[in-house]
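Full entry
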Amino acid sequence: MWACCARGAILALVLMLWAGHGKADDLADFNAAVESASAHNRVAIGYLRTGNTDLASLEIDRLREAWGRLATRFATKRPSAFDGNPLYGSLWTGVSARLVTADLMLKTGQAEAASDALNALRSDLYTLRKASGVVVLADCVRDANAVMDAFMAYNDRALDWGKLEIRSDVASKASSYGGILDRCDSIAGDTIRKNPEFRRLVDGAKASLQLVPQAIAARDGNLLHRVLIELRSFDNLLAFRFG
């Protein structure tokens, strides 16, 4: 009797662990499939930014194909991480509408509107994951972009360095950006963390940030301007490649 119960308990434990493993794998597979599609989205946005609409159109086609494969696998089979998240169900029709809009805008010569639609797709995924506490590198990079946008408000050679609040806020924004770079570095997988391009961008941005205290101490608007331009460049490339 005891042996039978013990075997039953062991079997139940094995099944529970197997089920948990399957759910974890579902999320990993979902994230990998989303990243595969998002890579085409990033490239398309980059081409639109530089005015290369032909290549942007090609990437949108590839994005649509990748998204179709993703929808086939996961539209009716949500990973457990998204249980109870109402955004999951609306994601599929929402993204499909974004893709139709992007394609239509591009074909009618409205590249900026096409880019807006593709960026909105990024926002849809960001909001979905954030609502469920799902953490991926692309969302961290997006957060870094937002911090950098705020930091760029000080891209002004004529800053009034005499104001303590300005000096303090410049230092605070530099610290915030450095902190979020550290977070992105920590959540990137081993493969990406060791990627030479990722290392160049993250380490290059951190090196530029080390000049901010020097600019503040010297009250040097020209130096801060150069630092911000470098940081913006690193930030844009992070978004283009990993965002």
